[in-house]
Amino acid sequence: MKIRTDEIASVIKREIEQFSSQLEVSEVGRVVEVGDGIARIYGLSKAMAGELLEFQTAEGSVMGQVFNLELDTVGAVIYGDYLAVKEGDLVKGTGRLMEVPVGEGMLGRVVNPLGEPLDDKGPTNATEFRKVDIIAPGIAERQPVTQPLQTGIKAVDSMIPIGRGQRELIIGDRKTGKTAVALDTIINQKQFWGTPDAVVCIYVAVGQKESTVAATVETLRKNGAMDYTIIVNAGSSDPAPMQYVAPYSGTAMGEYFMWSGKTAGAKLSGGAPMPKHVLCIYDDLSKQAVAYRQLSLLLKRPPGREAYPGDVFYLHSRLLERATKLSDDNGGGSMTSLPIIETQEGDVSAYIPTNVISITDGQIYLEPELFFAGVRPAINVGISVSRVGGNAQIKPMKQIAGSLRLDLAAYRELEAFAQLGTELDKATQRQLDRGARMVELLKQPQYVPMHVLDQVIAIFAASKGLMDDIPVSAVREFEAGLAAYLSGVGKAARDALAEKKDIKAVEKQLLDACHAFKSTFKVK
Ligand SMILES: Nc1ncnc2c1ncn2[C@@H]1O[C@H](COP(=O)(O)OP(=O)(O)OP(=O)(O)O)[C@@H](O)[C@H]1O
Ligand SMILES: [Mg+2]
């Protein structure tokens, strides 16, 4: 038999090639220091910033993430059971960035920031994953905000309108009804569920008591809002890294739906169109910033103003920048963000509040004085603004909101003056009366969001002076009666408004209907 050397050489070469391809190279390091949810690791010289790590502990594997790249160690945060991680444990770099499960299966679920279920409904069975921390879409991928996100709250929809894709801050002291505004907005999205305008809501709870979150879930369930809501919870007893990452996880879950608009004809398993609009609520970012400060200080990042690390602005801006209205080429989906910030004694000029005010497109400012005076929602309409929402308001609302703002501004100006008890001329007195009724009209109890057409009708009637001779205490009764009348006997006028979407076109009909109702109205 003849031996062909080149053949043998080629076989050996192939073997060698295959040998090297079967070899799994993984970089490992060892924990040199651990505590409070953070670890310092020696080795891992090729670790990437933000890389997912696997701690191999005696009690199984625990995930972590690279945070600081230092000269000869790596500082990492630990997600999950950090008490299991011990000094000397082996740490493996995964070469991946952090991901969470996303998709339809997450709807109606309460999960932790890793996407693991916290409710008793079993596994989420997600088949898709998305990166938690990504770069926000650039401007070429976006388009201006043009579609309203109805909150169902009269004071907001009329004067501080929010558009789909906008970022609107809810700011105020503790117990001023911040969460209430957010929850009412979620509940109001129920009317759109199952339609092409459907909005998936994501409520990210950071640093709240478990009982508070449980009550929130229960409220949403009772109001039928859990069908289209995902709750991401990192409670006050969870380690700081979990609280820090929760808003990003929630956002990633929302982005799945936002980008689904690109797949034409996508459907939910029930047959309804795949929702491409998302509402993200971060309740609240002050606590998230505190968690971030805690782990940054533990990792020895230099403290800056108020001891926050220098990049705390970047922390919030890269999160809120992900709220966007995508261009039509990208499917036209949207993500609206409602971050919540808690102030101390109304101090909006503290570090975190000013940061987030400057990042967002406006703020809803809630005041304890108003809250305790019974003006609820306690929105200070004088200093609350929405910088883009006006473009997204429906036309009839836009037509009447202007006069509402003016009436309220005039009222605020005259109110202090009137307290002096001086005799007032007729015009001034009329303005005061009008203002008092407008303030009364904008009060709204919790969990009863109002359809935008009913809001328009109520404000229209008030601005036409129909309520001027109704006692202030009966204004809300009048409003409720009017809404009922226009859904019943006077339905034609409401339908005309819904169809024409223009106050001017139906003004006479609407006014007649309002007067017709007023003639039947008796103050109890
Ligand atoms: N529109 C409203 N009408 C009546 N009560 C309200 C209204 N909004 C909020 N409340 C009540 O005010 C209280 C505080 O509301 P909420 O919990 O929303 O405030 P918060 O600012 O989120 O508080 P925290 O600082 O604890 O997060 C709650 O008991 C709530 O039921
Ligand atoms: Mg709250």
SSE layout:
Blueprint: H1 5-22, E1 28-35, E2 38-43, E3 51-57, E4 60-69, E5 73-79, E6 90-97, E7 99-102, E8 110-111, E9 128-131, H2 154-159, E10 169-172, H3 178-188, E11 199-206, H4 210-222, E12 229-234, H5 240-260, E13 277-283, H6 285-298, H7 312-320, E14 334-342, H8 351-359, E15 362-366, H9 368-372, E16 385-386, H10 395-418, H11 426-441, H12 452-463, H13 475-487, H14 491-500, H15 503-520
Parallel strand pairs: 8-12, 10-14, 10-15, 11-12, 11-13, 13-14
Antiparallel strand pairs: 1-2, 1-6, 2-5, 3-4, 3-6, 4-5, 7-9, 15-16
Helix pairs in contact: 5-6, 7-8, 10-11, 10-12, 11-12, 13-15, 14-15
The structure holds adenosine-5'-triphosphate (ATP) and magnesium ion.
Strand order of the largest sheet: 8-12-11-13-14-10-15-16
Instruction: Provide a count of the helices.
Output: 15
**Low-pLDDT windows of residues:** none
Q: What integer value in Å does the Rg equal?
A: 28 Å
Number of strands: 16
How many angstroms does the end-to-end distance come to?
Answer: 116 Å
The proportion of residues in beta strands is 15-25%
Quaternary state of the chains: single chain
Major sheet, described briefly?
Answer: 8 strands, mixed
Averaged pLDDT, please?
93
Shape: elongated
Q: Give the helix/strand class.
A: alpha/beta
Instruction: Kindly state the percentage of residues in helix.
Output: 25-40%
Q: What ions, cofactors and ligands are bound?
A: adenosine-5'-triphosphate, magnesium ion
